[in-house]
Amino acid sequence: MKLDYKKLKYNTILLLVFMLAISGFLYFSKTFGMYVASGESQANVDLAFSLLQPDELEKEIQLEDIKPDSSEHTYSFSVANYEKDRLIDVNMEYIVKIISTTNLPITYSLYDWDDNKIDVTDEYITDEHATVFYVITSNDYKMNYTDKKIDKFKIKYSLDSQYDSSVYQDIIELLSIKIEVKQV
Question: How confident is the model over 73-83, as pLDDT tens digits?
Fold first, then answer.
């Protein structure tokens, strides 16, 4: 029986390439994180973000029942490092950004779930169309890949009663929540 060295060499090279591809996949899935998501949260909030959905970490929200009566309204949201039984693959750090148009003089504050006011930085930014945005940025929050965790937040907002005028009647205020994430 004669061995076909050409076929044996081809099969050996094919096996090595396959083993390298599997090894590379296993290595890089831990390094860069594999993100698969479905969009559920166990938190009782208005909006849920998952770090497993990197393409869906910014949402525009509707501010309902905002009237110039100085009453405080609350919008809640959460940030989780898991969905169902799937955890993030690497340690991550994130910040929360609250971005609003400045069409109405609404005041905004960021709170944790226990109603502790969160220290933030705020600034006004003008885009290329000369639209002015008010941006509130939180400090860093850390989430590791070993334990399931949900951070819950509240945005408290109000429109002072001094703005009870027909001038403000049909003006629309847009608000978005953005989660900026990086691996640590």
Answer: 999 999 999 99
- Give the length of the chain: 184
Q: Kindly indicate the confidence band of residue 24, based on its pLDDT and cuts at 50, 70 and 90.
A: low
C-alpha dihedral (89, 90, 93, 95), degrees to nearest 10: -30
Instruction: Write the CB contacts of 170 (distance below 8 Å, at least 6 apart in sequence).
Output: none
User: Per the structure block, which two tokens stand in for 104?
Assistant: 């109405």
The conformation of residue 11, written as its DSSP 8-state character, comes to H
pLDDT over 70 at 38, yes or no: no
Residue 69 — pLDDT band, cuts 50, 70, 90?
confident
Mean pLDDT on 42-66: 80
Confirm if 144 and 183 have CB atoms less than 8 A apart. no
Q: How large is the average pLDDT for residues 54-72? A: 83
Three-state DSSP class for residue 146: coil
Cα separation, 106 vs 147, in Å, equals 37
Q: Which of 171, 173, 180, 169 is nearest to 75 (CA)?
A: 173
